[in-house]
Design a protein that fits this description.
By secondary structure, the protein is mainly α. It has helices spanning 2-24, 26-35, 39-50, 54-62, 70-95.
């Protein structure tokens, strides 16, 4: 169960890191999306420019404009911090026979 929780937490962390990076470069991300002829083109351009994974680009392209607001950015940062703390706890559990 702990290994499953760790795997899910790491998957979520991966998405959140992509969203956070996209928000750091939001003007460029929006420009790339606007210039793209379709979703696959936008996805490929984002992966090439920023090194995002397929999962990260899918999350970025699904991101609503309201996410650009400061409060939403804080929510992403807070969730990322919580997930990273959870990952550390789960790894500690898995690395110790006692735990």
């Amino acid at each position: 169960r702990t290994e499953y929780d760790l795997r899910k937490a790491e998957e979520r962390e991966h998405i959140l890191l992509g969203l956070s990076k996209a928000l750091d470069h939001i003007d460029e991300v929006i420009a790339i999306i606007k210039k793209s002829k379709d979703v696959p083109d936008a996805s490929a351009s984002l992966m090439k420019k920023f090194g995002f994974s397929i999962l990260q680009t899918a999350a970025i392209l699904a991101m609503r404009l309201q996410t650009l607001a400061g409060l939403e950015r804080k929510k992403i940062d807070d969730e990322l911090k919580e997930i990273q703390e959870l990952i550390a706890r789960l790894k500690k559990i898995l690395s110790s026979d006692k735990n």
